[in-house]
């Protein structure tokens, strides 16, 4: 069995954070299904999952014949802290019982399951999904995840007051979870400005939804780190006049620094995975360095203001 998915993360449109009620209305994507709402340890709302039917190649170049996937992908959207929107698409891949295509009722009865038709080893399929460059004709989970995020963004009420001085790119995190006899170290790779790939091997029996939630958590914190790093770089501390650097840093203080809270997803597996990523990539250490640099600038501004010196 193989679990694959992609998470798109970006800044929610609008001038300021949405209330929990307003955010819940934006992610109410499935009529009659409840929206998950959490207030602690921070505001979080998530839409119900809805199935999206797929029937397309899986992009396995090493296969002797084309490997297709038929079934449904689960799609959902979430908003964290009233500021950050995520769109997620994921599915479990299992071999089909035969080569004949079944009626759609068969696939709809198994939401979130894609049956693979054609000869290919699980490792080959995993390699195809983990590759930075994929066949344009192959299953594109990023497109499905992006559509969930776009629906939420397009529903943000227009108040005529765009968020000032904060333009942050969307990032994409693709995750591939393979079953193995034992747990292997997660491999987290950054490809350019937007794409990240997480590859994990776990023993059979792990709850797919907990793994998806971990992927969303990692995607959120990678986006925060990437965004704040970009803000600090554009502030050009020590190069630009002090007041201008401080002005450019302010959006990070207003909108992002309070959202860092990694490793709080349910389940021992998720906590172990986050600890392993931290050991290898030191995301929290990088965050603390950036946060402290920003706070040092704010503290220096306060000292100069008290001393009556111009910033």
TrEMBL record:
It comes from the Bacteria. This is Uncharacterized protein. It comes from Paractinoplanes bogorensis.
